[in-house]
Sequence to fold (774 residues):
Amino acid sequence: MFDTRFRHLKQIRIQSYLKALVLACLVPVCLSSVYLVHHSYHNQLTYLEQNLLATANILSVALDRDLSISQASLEALATSPALASRDMATFHAQALNVLKNFSDSDIILADATGQQIDNSYKPFGSTLPKRSSLDTVRRIFETRKPIVSNIFKGAVTGRYIIGIDVPVFQDGQVRYDLGMTFPADRLLALLHPQELLDKRLITILDSGNTIVARSNRPELYVGKQIISPPLLQLMAVANHGTTEGFNLEGERSTVSFKRSEATGWTVLVSSPKAIMVNALKQWLQWTIGSLSVLLAFGLGMAFVITRIIARSVQDLIAPALALGRGETVLPKHFELTETNEVAKALLLAGNLLQEQESARKEAENALKQMNETLEIMIADRTAQLVFANETLQKNEAQLKSFIEQAPASLAMFDTEMRYLGASRRWLSDYGLGDRDLLGVSHYEIFPEIPAEWREVHRRGLAGELLQAEADRFERVDGTVQWVRWVIQPWINIAGQIGGILIFTEDITKVIKAEELLKASLAEKEVMLREIHHRVKNNLQVISSLVSLQSDNLTDDRIRDELNDVRDRVRSMALIHEKLYQTSNLAQLNFADYAASLLQYLWRSHGTLAEKVRLNLALTPVALSIEAAVPCGLILNELAGNALKHAFPGRDGEVTVNLDHDVATDSVCLRVYDNGVGMPAGLDWQESKSLGLRLVQILTKQLCGTVETGTGPGVEFRITFPLKGFSE
Amino acid sequence: MSKLSILIVEDKAIVAENLTHKVRQLGYDVVGTTATGEEAIELARRQ
Fold:
């Protein structure tokens, strides 16, 4: 019936709970009772100690009073006129009269030597001995003050006696010692009223701590010293107090004492400890006894109540089981209200269960019907799915063959980089033969794939489109492969990245061809440079030959003509020199060339050039060799003419401008001087001069135009289009 | 006035010859011609 899950848990009976309750109620009561008994004991002890000390104080005062009465009587007698007049008979009578108030006492008169002069115990006139306590007599004469003696045994009576002595003064001098003795027994009268209370013991000690009187059995202890060490220690440092110790009977007692300031005598009051302890024991017995009865009663009640509750609860088991089996149970009366309530709830729960059961059965039927409908629907849907599946398989086969037969290196991967398909070209490009790659990891096939490639795959899987035009890939066997590739994620039906597509093209051959081409180009460049260099050298040699030839001539006209040839050849040599110094070998900076050319020209015509200033305003223009050679020759002719002919025997300046008109993309070369100008009537276009003819011919070659200025000097402007010559 | 001595360094003989001629025309003393820089330094040291 009970769930096995609860078996390992501890089960506790109601009885245990009730017992714990009884204990929980009674234990604090026990503890507080014990505490109260203990506290009360301490209070009583304190009260007793205070009481003992108070009694000691009262008795000490009473003792002082008793002794001072005797002393006062003696002092009164000491002033008797009979003593002054030495009338001893009268004094004897007076002494006897005083003794009527003090039974059993005697009065003794003695002189400074201790010789008794009168003794009330003997008839007047008897022969008397010396005093037994001569020390007391001496002290009276020395201190001139009354003395109360310690206890001593009487010389005549053999009893314990106490003496009080006073000095008798005559004319300011101590004449006699007047003493009174009385038996120690007299003091017992002081003790009797206190004696019966609490079995107390009262003891009087003289200043030497000898027992003078004692309330219990004085006959045994009077005249003895007390020996209790704690008491003696305390008495040595204080004149009153309370301590514990053993009395002379050997009982453990609490004892208080008080010492009189006047006499140095002490009163002890003690009470046996046993009385206190007995009272405490009685208290404890009562407490424990009553608590035990309470505990037993409580536990008994707990047992009875438990039986009642347990029986009521257990009575519910049979009806509950019957309800569980679905049987009908009639309402029944139980002893406890709570049990009745539970029984009612059980009945109600049983009814509810039955209702639910019938509801469940109805639901089950409905479910069964629904199931049948569903099965029919499933059959329909399955047929549809089979058809769709067939279509899908067909499509898949088409897709597979599309990938396989694609004329490119193509592969499709899932998110774990496993092959979903690959083209035949892929298989052959990567030397994979006829392997079935489906489901195999790319990294399993090519473990050498480096980390950066794996990173690229990861980025593709993260949604990036990646590509490279040429990527170097070193294979395990050491061969180098150049690959153009594209990596692109593909999206599945759910709209998520299903993997990547890799397209690669082995462009190793293309790259290698490119490399060969580059090498060949570089080689050709070197050769071209070398050719330019050699052409320049050859032209330079020609120029030198012409120059040497001209030096041998005597005819100035022919020499000048040869020098013109030299200058023309040099202008061409300079083109090649500038060309092989440029980086691209196809074009040169004509401004730079023009400056060098004119410098050469001016230098080689030293004497003429001294008087002619050269002004240059040159814009950098890049010209090809086709344009540069004719343009250089034109510049050589025009500047040479100006240098040689514009300034016969005078100073002047030649200006050369080079401009690039961006709008028309044309170059303008302008050479002008401030010299004498052309001879009058000369049409330069009809001139027989080779130089001017060259200018015309070469400008035509450049598809350009020649313009001349109006003077006063000579000005030529050559304009030609850049297009067709600069490339 | 002491004449300035000039050494022509040029690997093309005709060019060198032309230069020598021109320099002499200008009134300088040409002490020799040589084709390479190393030879020129050697000659200059010997002079």
In short: The mean pLDDT of chain B is 86. The first strand of chain B starts at residue 5 and ends at 9. The interface with chain A takes residues 12, 14-15, 17-19, 21-22, 25 of chain B (CB under 8 Å). Strands of chain B lie at 5-9, 29-34.
